[in-house]
From TrEMBL:
Domain spans labelled HAMP: 167-219
Recorded GO MF terms: kinase activity
EC annotation from Swiss-Prot or TrEMBL: 2.7.13.3
CDD domains: HAMP, HisKA
Localization per Swiss-Prot or TrEMBL: Cell membrane
Keywords, ordered alphabetically: ATP-binding, Cell membrane, Kinase, Membrane, Nucleotide-binding, Phosphoprotein, Transferase, Transmembrane, Transmembrane helix, Two-component regulatory system
PANTHER family xrefs: SENSOR PROTEIN CREC
Domain Histidine kinase intervals: 227-424
Pfam assignment, any one: HisKA
Catalysed reaction, written as an equation: ATP + protein L-histidine = ADP + protein N-phospho-L-histidine
Protein name (database record): histidine kinase
Entry superkingdom: Bacteria
């Protein structure tokens, strides 16, 4: 935009300068030629009284003094055919002047000024002076150079002023773009200053209104999710009471653990829904969280005759997620293994440190693998699930500064690679 404004101003000012300065440059040449011609004519007319007197001796003396003083050369063509003064050929213009007409005629290398003088005799004498092309254009180049420099100076000044104006406009628009990028990055408190031209102020006001509306909608969504999750506490309480009433057994322990895990997830959903995205990040020891969740799922793996391979880096492995958020991700990945692979299918969990901080969590199984499409896309599922597990994990990984990828093994199976970023500084 800034460059386009400068090009527009430069072209407009250039056209105006050409329309103004070109006639002046032409007029400078005309005025210089007219001035030289007028000076030469005055010089020639100064000899008219001497020529009219008819004295040859006085005329020769006057011509000698005039030509010795410099300036335009003077020549007198006498009626008798003689020539006095500066040597000059009798041209057609001179012969025409003998008829009694004073005139100006173009000649080779300049211009002839001819003055017809009627003397004491009946015949006419002609006074001739010559103005060279150099005299006709004297000072024209300098005048045109001054005009050119003046035009260039005006053009530069206009470009500087236009650049200042364009920079102020571009700065305002760039500020709006930066605010929009901050909003897109989740900084919903960002606002654009309503300043500048009316149109820019209207855009800033609309952007601020949009940001405020987003805050309202997010708050409504969080409250709706929190309220819905809170309603689940009543049946969970009933399940807790039923689980506590069961006789002590391995099955009762698993039911109690499942109810406890569900209560923890509901609590986390309420917390996540009631806080902003900026407050959703934290940190935890990924090695401890992954090990604890593997221990929890190990009982179900033994019941289904699944071989579990774990390869966890030594504690601590600090990542930029809270322990609750990471536990939810691990549970979602392991739940997918149990839900979408036959009983007896082995799986493996590996946790490695990243060189630049954070960790890489890989969950792989030897099941049928993923179907078509993107399994991490929200709402997509190849089985009878909601299709939200991988999407929840992906969003949590991205919130920490990482990512999620899915892949198939060379001999079948499925792998989910979750990169977790380090905690914020």
């Amino acid at each position: 935009m800034r460059r386009r404004l400068l090009v527009l101003v430069a072209s407009t000012v250039s056209l105006a300068l050409v329309a103004f300065l070109a006639p002046l440059a032409f007029l400078a040449g005309v005025l210089a030629a007219d001035r030289a011609t007028a000076d030469a004519l005055v010089r020639a007319q100064s000899l008219v009284p001497v020529v009219s007197a008819g004295g040859r001796t006085g005329l020769e003396l006057a011509l000698e003094q005039a030509n010795s003083a410099g300036g335009f050369p003077l020549t007198v063509f006498l009626p008798s055919g003689g020539v006095l003064g500066a040597p000059a050929a009798e041209s057609d213009a001179v012969r025409l002047a003998f008829t009694g007409r004073s005139l100006t005629a173009n000649a080779s290398g300049g211009r002839e000024i001819l003055v017809a003088v009627q003397g004491t005799s009946a015949r006419t004498a002609v006074i001739r002076t010559f103005v060279s092309d150099e005299d006709l254009t004297r000072g024209v180049a300098r005048a045109r150079a001054i005009l050119g420099l003046l035009g260039l100076g005006l053009l530069l000044i206009s470009l500087v002023v236009a650049d200042r104006l364009a920079r102020s406009q571009v700065r305002l628009i760039s500020g709006l773009a930066r605010v929009s990028h901050r909003l897109a990055a989740g900084e919903l408190s960002a606002r654009a200053p309503a300043e500048g031209p009316r149109e820019v102020r209207e855009v800033a006001t609309a952007l601020n209104h949009l940001a405020g509306r987003i805050l309202v909608l997010l708050a409504q969504e969080r409250e709706a999710v929190a309220d819905l999750s809170h309603r689940l506490r009543t049946p969970l309480t009933a399940l807790r009471l039923e689980a506590d009433a069961l006789p002590e057994s391995e099955q009762a322990t698993r039911v109690s653990a499942a109810v406890e895990s569900m209560e923890r997830m509901v609590t986390q959903v309420i917390k996540e829904a009631r806080r902003s995205r900026q407050d959703a990040t934290g940190e935890c020891d990924a090695a401890l969280v992954v090990a604890e969740r593997l221990d929890y799922w190990a009982m179900l793996a033994r019941d289904q005759d699944r071989r579990v391979t774990r390869d966890l880096a030594g504690s601590p492995v600090t990542v930029g997620l809270t322990a609750e958020a990471l536990a939810t991700c691990v549970d979602a990945l392991l739940e997918n293994v149990f839900a979408h692979t036959p009983e007896g299918t082995p799986f493996a969990v590996r946790l490695d440190r990243r060189p630049d901080g954070g960790a890489v969590l890989v969950v792989g199984d030897e099941g049928p693998g993923f179907g078509g499409g993107d399994p991490a896309r929200r709402g997509v599922s190849g089985g009878a699930s909601t299709g939200l597990g991988l999407d929840i994990t992906r969003r949590a990984a991205e919130r920490s500064g990482g990512s999620l990828e899915t892949a198939g093994g060379p001999d079948g199976g499925a792998f989910v690679i979750v990169e977790l970023g380090p905690p914020p500084n």
